[in-house]
C-alpha cells in the first residue's frame, strides 16, 4: 500500500504539531522545511483544521497546533481522512470481479493494515520524532 503525497504531508504536519504542542506553527514554516508548496500545505492544514485534528489561528501571527491531544489521534483516522481510495486494486473494472479469489484477500489485508494504524496514535509516532534544528521561527 502506498499512501498519497496528501496523506504523507498530513502526517508530517501533524507530527510537527505533536512534537512541540505548545508552539504555533505557520504553514510557511512547515512548507519550507519539507519542500512542500505553500498551496498544498494550506489545503492539508485546511482539511485537518476542518476535521478538528488541528486548531487553526487566523491573522498575522496565526498558525496551527493540534486540535486534540496526540494520544487521542490515531494514524488510521488520519489515513481514512486523507486517502481518497483505500482499495489496493481496481476490482470494479476487472473482468474477474464477480468470481475472483483475490478480492476477499485484498480486503482482509487492507483491514489488517488499517487495524494496525488504528492501534497507533500520533503520540506514538511523535515519541520517536525530532524537529530538525534549527527550525525556522518565522517564515
Can you tell me about this structure?
The chain has 139 residues and is mainly α. It has a single domain, classed as Orthogonal Bundle (Arc Repressor Mutant, subunit A). The protein contains 6 helices and 2 strands; from the N terminus they run αααββααα. It has helices spanning 5-19, 27-34, 38-50, 75-82, 102-118, 122-127; strands spanning 54-57, 63-66. It has a two-stranded antiparallel sheet. A hairpin with a 5-residue loop joins β1 and β2. The chain is elongated, with a radius of gyration of 17 Å.
Helix and strand arrangement:
Layout: H1 5-19, H2 27-34, H3 38-50, E1 54-57, E2 63-66, H4 75-82, H5 102-118, H6 122-127
Antiparallel strand pairs: 1-2
Helix pairs in contact: 1-3, 1-4, 2-3, 4-5
Number of domains: 1
Q: Assign an overall shape.
A: elongated
Strands ordered across the widest β-sheet: 1-2
Element order: H for helix, E for strand: HHHEEHHH
How many beta strands in the DSSP annotation? 2
Report low-confidence residues grouped into runs of 5 or more: none
Multimer state: single chain
A few lines on this structure:
With 139 residues, the chain is mainly α.
Could you name the key traits of this structure?
48% helix, elongated, 139 residues, single chain, 6 helices, 6% strand, mainly alpha, two-stranded antiparallel ribbon, 2 strands, Arc Repressor Mutant, subunit A
Amino acid at each position: 500500500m502506498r499512501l498519497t503525497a496528501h496523506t504523507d504531508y498530513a502526517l508530517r504536519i501533524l507530527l510537527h504539531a505533536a512534537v512541540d504542542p505548545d508552539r504555533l506553527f505557520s504553514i510557511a514554516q512547515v512548507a519550507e522545511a519539507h519542500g512542500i508548496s505553500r498551496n498544498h500545505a494550506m489545503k492539508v492544514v485546511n482539511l485537518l483544521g476542518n476535521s478538528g485534528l488541528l486548531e487553526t489561528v487566523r491573522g498575522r501571527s496565526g498558525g496551527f497546533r493540534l486540535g486534540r491531544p496526540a494520544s487521542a489521534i490515531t494514524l488510521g483516522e488520519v489515513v481514512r481522512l486523507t486517502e481518497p481510495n483505500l482499495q489496493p486494486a481496481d476490482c470494479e473494472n476487472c473482468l474477474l470481479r464477480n468470481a475472483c479469489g483475490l478480492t476477499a484477500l485484498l480486503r482482509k489485508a487492507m483491514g489488517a493494515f488499517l487495524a494496525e494504524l488504528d492501534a497507533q496514535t500520533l503520540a506514538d509516532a511523535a515519541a520517536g520524532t525530532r524537529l530538525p534544528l534549527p527550525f525556522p521561527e518565522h517564515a
